[in-house]
Write a structure and sequence with these properties.
Family: Belongs to the glycosyltransferase GT106 family.
Organism: Lupinus luteus (European yellow lupine)
Number of helices: 23
Largest sheet: 6 strands, parallel
Number of strands: 15
Helix content: 40-55%
Pathway: Glycan metabolism
Low-confidence stretches: 1-50, 70-157
GO molecular function: glycosyltransferase activity
Main location: membrane
Length: about 575
C-alpha cells in the first residue's frame, strides 16, 4: 500500500490488477465509492448487529454465496506472475510512485533502463498521454514470461536422466609449477635481447591452438613474445586482430610470471632482419632449441609461421601446465565479445538447461571431408562438382569412396542423424537447443529434421536483439567466439563432427569440472542407423550403451598416444585426492 500525505487529508491507494477491476460491475464500484460516506452510520449499527448471532452468521453465509457466484465462474483470470508489481494511473504520474528514488522497486519485476528504452520506441517516443507506465510494465512482464524468441511461459524443461552430469571424480585444476621452472622464470623475464614473432592462420579456434604453442615456444627459447599476428583469412576475409578477439591486457597479466608479452618490437629491434622458420610436425623442445636458439641469440628476432600442430603433444610436465594456463586462463575473449556471448547464453539459460550443438554442415565442410549432405541429388552434385574442380580441398584419404568414409566415421552427421542420436540418448522433445556453426548447405531445409523433432531450436541470430550483432556480423572470428561462449556455458555440448572448436570446448568443459560432453560414436553407431528393421526401443538401448563412456567423464591424456593436454587436461593440469600434484 502506498500512502500520499498532505496537510488536510490522508489518502490511501492500493494496486489492483486491471482484470479484477473490469470484472466488477459499475454498481459495485459505486458502492465502494459510497462506502466512505456511510462508514459512520454502519459503525453505529455494528453493536446492534453483533448482538444477534443468527443475523450475523446468516449475513456471512449470504456474502460467501455471493462471492462464490461472482468469482467462481471466472477462475481463469490471468493474474500477473508478479503480484507485487506496482502499477500506476496516468493522473498520478508526478506522484511518489514515479520518483527516481523508486526505480529500485521497478527493477524488482525485471524492468531495466534498456527495457524502458525499448518501451519508449514501441510507444512512439514515450508519449505519456498515449500509454501509461502501468501498461508498459504489464507488457514487459508478459515479454519476460514469454522468454527469448518465443519460449512459452509455463513450459518447463523436463529434468531427467539426459541432463545428468558425469562423475568428475573430484578432479580440479592443478597448476603447481616445479621449483626449477619458477627459478628459470627470473632469467626469462629479465631478458631484453630475444623476441619471438608468430603469424597464426586459419579460423578462430585454429588460431587459439597456435597461440598456445607460440607461448610455449617463447618459454622454451627464453624469448619475449610479441603479440601474435593474425593472418587475414582467405575464405572469410576476416581482418580481425588479436585485440579484437582476445583481451590483450588479461593475456599479458596472466602470463606475467611465465613469458614476457609485448605489444610490438622495441625500437632497438625494428631494423633487425628476423630469422624465419616453419617447424615440421610434432617437434620437441630440444629440436626447437637446437634449430633456432643460436641464430636467435645472434639476430635477436625469430619469426615463425604455420604453427598448427607443430609442437609435440608430449611435453615436460611444466610445459604441459603452461599450455593449460594459456588455453584455459590467459585466452579470455575481448570484453565486447564476452558480453554479447554472456547475454545470449543467459537468454538460453532463462528457461532451464540447454543443449549446444556444433553443426558442421557448411558447403566447404562437405567438400573438404569428401562426404555428401544427403539432402537431394542436386546438392550432392554441387558438392561433387566443386570437389572435382578443386581436388586440393580434400583433406585426405582421397582413395576412399563416400560410403567408405561414412562407415569409417569420417563424415559429419547431418541433421536427421543428429536428431535421432540425441533423441535416442534421452533428449526430451521440449529441450532447448542452441546450434553453433555457419550457414548449412541447403539453408533451413537442411535443418528441418532437427527443427521438427525439437522445435525450441535457436542460434545467435534468433536470440540477439535488433542491432546487437551488427558490429560482429562481417567478422567470422568474432561470430565463432560468440558461438564458443554460448556453447561452453551450455549444460550439454555435442559436435556433429570433430574439429578445433569441438576439441577446445571439450578441454574447457573438462577443466571446468567435466561438464557433460557427448562424443558421437559414429563408426559403431551408423550401421544401426541404416538398419530400418531395428525396433525403436532396441535402437535406443544400443545407442545409449555405445555412448555410456562418451559423455565427458575424466580420461587420462596418456591413455592414448598423441592426445593434446588442452583437450584432456587430466592428469597434468587437474588432480584429485588420489592423484595430487604439488
Amino acid at each position: 500500500m502506498a500512502k500520499c500525505k498532505n496537510s488536510s487529508k490522508k489518502l490511501s491507494y492500493i494496486s489492483v490488477p486491471s482484470q479484477i477491476i473490469n470484472s466488477i460491475s459499475s454498481s459495485s464500484l459505486q458502492s465502494l465509492l459510497d462506502s466512505s460516506s456511510t462508514s459512520k452510520k454502519s459503525a453505529r449499527n455494528t453493536f446492534k448487529f453483533y448482538r444477534n448471532p443468527r443475523l450475523f452468521f446468516f449475513t456471512l453465509f449470504l456474502l460467501s454465496l455471493l462471492a462464490f457466484f461472482k468469482f467462481g465462474s471466472n477462475l481463469d483470470i490471468p493474474f500477473s506472475p508478479y503480484p507485487c508489481a506496482i502499477t500506476t494511473l496516468p493522473q498520478f504520474k508526478d506522484s511518489y510512485l514515479h520518483s527516481k528514488s523508486n526505480l529500485g522497486v521497478v527493477s524488482n519485476v525485471g524492468y531495466s533502463a534498456h527495457d524502458a528504452k525499448e518501451d519508449e520506441v514501441l510507444n512512439g517516443g514515450g508519449d505519456d498521454s498515449s500509454v501509461s507506465l502501468s501498461e508498459s510494465l504489464f507488457a514487459n512482464v508478459q515479454l519476460q514470461a514469454q522468454g527469448p524468441s518465443g519460449f512459452e511461459s509455463g513450459e518447463e524443461v523436463e529434468k531427467g536422466e539426459f541432463w545428468k552430469q558425469p562423475n568428475g571424480l573430484g578432479y580440479k585444476p592443478c597448476l603447481g609449477f616445479s621449483r626449477d621452472y619458477r627459478r628459470g622464470s627470473e632469467g626469462v623475464l629479465r631478458d631484453r635481447r630475444k623476441y619471438l614473432m608468430v603469424v597464426v592462420s586459419g579460423g578462430m579456434n585454429q588460431q587459439r591452438n597456435q597461440i598456445v604453442d607460440a607461448v610455449v615456444i617463447a618459454r622454451i627459447l627464453g624469448a619475449a613474445l610479441v603479440v601474435p599476428i593474425l593472418q587475414v583469412n582467405v575464405i572469410w576475409g576476416d581482418e580481425s586482430e588479436f585485440a579484437d578477439i582476445f583481451d590483450m591486457e588479461h593475456f599479458k597479466s596472466v602470463l606475467a610470471d611465465d613469458v614476457r608479452v609485448v605489444s610490438a618490437l622495441p625500437s632497438t629491434h625494428l631494423m633487425t632482419r628476423p630469422v624465419e622458420g616453419s617447424p615440421p610436425l610434432h617437434v620437441t623442445p630440444s629440436w626447437i632449441r637446437s634449430r633456432y636458439l643460436k641464430r636467435l641469440n645472434r639476430e635477436g628476432v625469430l619469426l615463425l609461421r604455420g604453427l598448427d600442430s607443430r609442437l609435440s603433444k608430449d611435453l615436460p610436465s611444466d610445459l604441459q601446465k603452461l599450455r593449460c594456463k594459456v588455453a584455459f586462463s590467459a585466452l579470455r575473449f575481448a570484453k565486447p565479445v564476452q558480453e554479447i556471448g554472456n547475454k545470449i547464453a543467459e537468454r538460453m539459460q532463462s528457461k532451464g538447461p540447454y543443449l549446444a550443438l556444433h553443426l558442421r554442415m557448411e558447403r566447404d565442410v562437405w567438400v573438404r571431408t569428401g562426404c555428401l549432405p544427403g539432402l537431394s541429388p542436386e546438392y550432392d552434385e554441387i558438392v561433387n562438382n566443386e570437389r572435382k574442380q578443386r581436388p586440393e580441398l580434400l583433406t585426405g584419404r582421397s582413395n576412399m569412396t563416400y560410403h567408405e568414409r561414412k562407415l569409417a566415421g569420417l563424415c559429419p552427421l547431418n541433421a536427421m542423424e543428429v536428431a535421432r542420436l540425441i533423441k535416442a540418448l534421452g533428449a526430451p522433445k521440449g529441450s532447448r537447443i542452441y546450434w553453433a556453426g555457419g550457414q548449412p548447405l541447403g539453408g533451413k531445409e537442411a535443418l528441418n529434421p532437427l527443427i521438427n523433432e525439437f522445435p525450441h531450436f535457436y542460434n545467435k541470430e534468433d536470440l540477439a536483439l535488433p542491432g546487437e550483432l551488427e558490429s560482429f556480423a562481417k567478422k567470422a572470428s568474432l561470430m565463432a567466439a560468440i558461438d564458443f561462449i554460448v556453447s561452453e556455458k551450455s549444460d550439454i555440448f555435442m559436435p556433429s563432427h570433430g574439429g578445433n572448436m569441438g576439441h577446445a570446448i571439450q578441454g574447457q568443459r573438462a577443466y571446468a569440472g567435466h561438464k557433460k560432453y557427448i562424443t558421437p560414436n559414429k563408426r559403431q553407431m551408423l550401421p544401426y542407423f541404416m538398419n530400418s528393421s531395428l525396433p525403436e526401443a532396441e535402437f535406443k538401448r544400443i545407442i545409449q550403451e555405445l555412448h555410456q563412456d562418451s559423455l565427458g567423464q575424466p580420461e587420462l591424456r596418456t591413455s592414448k598416444a598423441g592426445r593434446d593436454v588442452t583437450k584432456y587436461p587430466v592428469h597434468e593440469c587437474m588432480c584429485n585426492d588420489s592423484h595430487s600434484h604439488s
